[in-house]
């Protein structure tokens, strides 16, 4: 009986325990059902997250274009190759979709991606031996072009697959590379590192979107997937003020000087002095942003490398004297030397001078003594410092590019105050020099340089931001500017003028030369030797009303005994300025009989056949190239009424275009051809066309890829 009671108690206890546990579990289930939460986690949201796939929709980075819409930087698809090596992937053995022939696959792909066949074979075989699903081909298998992908696909090799990824592409190589800058993939996103790519990274980048949907356990989309799409917002397009044709001309010229004289550095800037628009800017050394390996110089020296400018500074000393009413062009002084203080005497570049000469002849001969006398005895040192500050030599020019570093006014000791008048001691960048000179070229108004023209929404085509002309200072009056221009014109035209090498055939020039000593890097004074100078020129044309202003500097060129320091810089200035003004259709103001014969207007060619158009253009003295055999004209590189020069190349595109022989063409002409035909042009190196990827006579279609290698 006692045993039975114990059994009953145990049974009751267990029954009660199970009943309590049931009530607890039932209560818990009821609570979960009612609240839908466990430990603060919403079960519905948790389940949805587990069966929801989400993918990023990558925004297309905005394009960078020149002022006329020529594409300078844009995203293009690149491809990475990989191989499926597992037999399990092929359900149908008669139609395999995995690599079946390692030797053949390795040999045929290696030729296209420029890889070692043995390396590819080793990778494939190792993957097979280790039972891997797929293998990649290393760095050689990444960054493939559409052309390479197409060639591999045409091989029809089983098991070969591709992944696609956008990459920043610069179709013109070194063209304006230190302006455009570089963008590379960083943490999976293309990010601007230098130049405009960095300066306007947020506007160019846009905003990524995403897509999400619900799937089953096997990864298939549900019938009611609750799909959500947030579209990507592509980046804005940025239009620069640079002109592709003038920039190409500058790039070609700098490359020729670089090859011939091998200077340490070259910098050149071309600006519209009325608006502050930079139409061309380049440096050497430069780099190709498509291949940023072993880059010698990342910096844009035109805005970030202050140097002692030398005698180009004298134009501002003279302008200051005129503004103060202290300039008398006919007043004479004793040239040769000038005693600054008990310890310091300065000399003209011709140490014994030219005897007693006028102030006007002094600026023409680039006399240090003349400007030193102006500062010490006419303007006054304190007032001259004020003018240096009025011309903003103590601050940045304010260009809309990253990395600008201003020069420094060195003005502590008596000798420094005097030497600043001829550009020694005090430093400045090319962009500071050309900005200050805009006041002389623009009626006394100094404009802020800018290189961004406008920012445009790629979808709506609406202008998001438009740059405007900004006058940052008025250091001198219009009357002073006009007189200074005339004085500087005489520097080029006078029989004594140091600027004679910079004289143009068709346009008058106002400007000032510079031959600046280079501080000894080992300390103590300046370097010596014929080549150890910064040779420069700051010139404006046409002289009476400048449309363009250009600063060019060449550091330590390797000159022959018979060559002068002005030859490299004059070669750049004359080629770029003369041709740029003609391209802009600026009327020559130095016209003579020769010029009148060489310059003509294109007749009315509208509606003519290709043969008739060719004859009409040849009659103007142009070198005519007809693209294709068609009788109808699709487009031409010149327009009716346009002013052209004898010997200038004209391109006629027919309605049946075929590839012409472009060997010997300049980069400007090749890019013009590509623009007319809407080709995808890739340029390699600089100079003149040497090889072309499309053979002569090949039928051309829109967006055909044309690679052209150039050589000097």
Automatic annotation (TrEMBL):
Catalytic activity, reaction form: Preferential cleavage: (Ac)2-L-Lys-D-Ala-|-D-Ala. Also transpeptidation of peptidyl-alanyl moieties that are N-acyl substituents of D-alanine
PROSITE patterns given in the database record: PASTA (PS51178)
Keyword Membrane appears in the UniProt entry: yes
Residue span, PASTA domain: 596-656
This protein's UniProt keywords: Membrane
Pathway: Cell wall biogenesis; peptidoglycan biosynthesis
EC number: 3.4.16.4
Gene3D superfamilies in the record: 3.30.70.2110, DD-peptidase/beta-lactamase superfamily (3.40.710.10), Penicillin-binding protein 2a (Domain 2) (3.90.1310.10)
Pfam families xref list: PASTA, PBP_dimer, Transpeptidase
Entry annotated with the keyword Membrane: yes
EC category name: hydrolase
SMART domains on file: PASTA (SM00740)
Localisation per UniProt entry: Membrane
Similarity comment: Belongs to the transpeptidase family.
Name of the protein this chain belongs to: serine-type D-Ala-D-Ala carboxypeptidase
Protein source organism: Terribacillus saccharophilus
């Amino acid at each position: 009986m006692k045993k039975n009671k114990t059994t009953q108690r145990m049974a009751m206890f267990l029954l009660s325990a199970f009943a309590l546990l049931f009530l607890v579990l039932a209560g818990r289930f009821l609570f979960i059902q009612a609240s839908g939460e466990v430990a603060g986690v919403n079960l519905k949201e948790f389940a949805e997250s587990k069966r929801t796939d989400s993918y990023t929709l990558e925004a297309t980075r905005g394009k960078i274009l020149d002022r006329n819409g020529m594409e300078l930087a844009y995203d293009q698809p690149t491809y990475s190759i990989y191989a499926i090596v597992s037999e399990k992937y092929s359900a149908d053995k008669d139609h395999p979709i995995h690599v079946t022939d390692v030797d053949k696959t390795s040999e045929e792909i290696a030729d296209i991606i420029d890889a070692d066949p043995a390396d590819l074979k080793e990778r494939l075989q190792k993957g097979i031996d280790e039972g891997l699903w797929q293998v990649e081909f290393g760095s050689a298998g990444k960054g493939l072009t559409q052309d390479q992908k197409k060639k591999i696909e045409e091989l029809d090799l089983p098991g070969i697959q591709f992944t696609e990824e956008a990459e920043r592409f610069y179709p013109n190589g070194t063209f304006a590379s230190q302006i455009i800058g570089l963008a590379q993939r960083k943490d999976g996103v293309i990010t601007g590192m230098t130049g405009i790519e960095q300066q306007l990274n947020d506007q160019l980048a846009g905003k990524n979107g995403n897509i999400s949907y619900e799937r089953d356990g096997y990864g298939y989309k549900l019938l009611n997937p609750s799909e959500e799409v947030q579209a990507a917002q592509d980046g804005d397009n940025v239009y620069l003020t640079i002109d592709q044709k003038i920039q190409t001309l500058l790039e070609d010229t700098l490359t020729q000087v670089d090859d011939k004289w091998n200077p340490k550095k070259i910098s050149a800037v071309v600006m519209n002095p009325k608006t502050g628009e930079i139409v061309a800017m380049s440096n050497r050394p430069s780099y190709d942003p498509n291949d940023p390996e072993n880059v010698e110089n990342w910096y844009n020296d035109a805005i970030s490398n202050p140097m002692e400018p030398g005698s180009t500074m004298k134009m501002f000393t003279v302008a200051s004297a005129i503004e103060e009413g202290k300039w008398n062009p006919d007043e004479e002084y004793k040239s040769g030397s000038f005693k600054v203080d008990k310890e310091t005497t300065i000399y003209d570049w011709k140490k014994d001078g030219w005897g007693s000469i006028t102030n006007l002849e002094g600026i023409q001969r680039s006399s240090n003594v003349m400007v030193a006398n102006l500062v010490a005895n006419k303007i006054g040192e304190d007032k001259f410092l004020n003018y240096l500050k009025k011309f903003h030599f103590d601050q940045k020019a304010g260009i809309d590019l990253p990395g600008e570093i201003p020069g420094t006014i060195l003005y502590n000791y008596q000798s420094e105050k005097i030497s600043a008048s001829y550009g020694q001691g005090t430093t400045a960048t090319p962009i500071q020099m050309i900005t200050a000179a805009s006041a002389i070229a623009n009626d006394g108004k100094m404009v802020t340089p800018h290189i961004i023209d406008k920012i445009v929404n790629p979808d709506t085509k609406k202008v998001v931001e438009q740059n405007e002309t900004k006058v940052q200072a008025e250091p001198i009056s219009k009357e002073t500017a006009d007189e200074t221009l005339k004085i500087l014109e005489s520097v080029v035209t006078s029989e004594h003028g140091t600027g004679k090498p910079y004289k143009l055939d068709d346009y008058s020039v106002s400007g000032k030369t510079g031959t600046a000593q280079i501080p000894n890097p080992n300390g103590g004074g300046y370097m010596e030797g014929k080549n150890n100078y910064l040779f420069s020129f700051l010139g404006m044309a046409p002289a009476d009303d400048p449309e363009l202003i250009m600063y060019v500097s060449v550091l330590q060129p390797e000159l022959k005994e018979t060559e002068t320091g002005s030859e490299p810089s004059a070669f750049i200035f004359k080629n770029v300025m003369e041709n740029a003004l003609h391209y802009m259709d600026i009327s020559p103001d130095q016209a003579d009989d020769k010029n009148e014969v060489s310059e003509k207007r294109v007749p009315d060619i509208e509606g003519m056949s290709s043969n008739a158009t060719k004859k009409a253009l040849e009659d103007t003295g142009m070198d005519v190239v007809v693209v294709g055999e068609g009788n109808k004209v699709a487009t031409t590189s010149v327009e009716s009424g346009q002013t052209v020069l004898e010997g200038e190349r004209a391109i006629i595109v027919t309605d049946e275009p075929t590839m012409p022989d472009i060997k010997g063409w300049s980069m400007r002409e090749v890019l013009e051809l590509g623009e007319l035909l809407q080709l995808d042009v890739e340029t390699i190196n600089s100079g003149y066309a040497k090889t072309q990827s499309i053979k002569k006579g090949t039928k051309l279609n829109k967006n055909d890829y044309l690679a052209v290698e150039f050589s000097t």
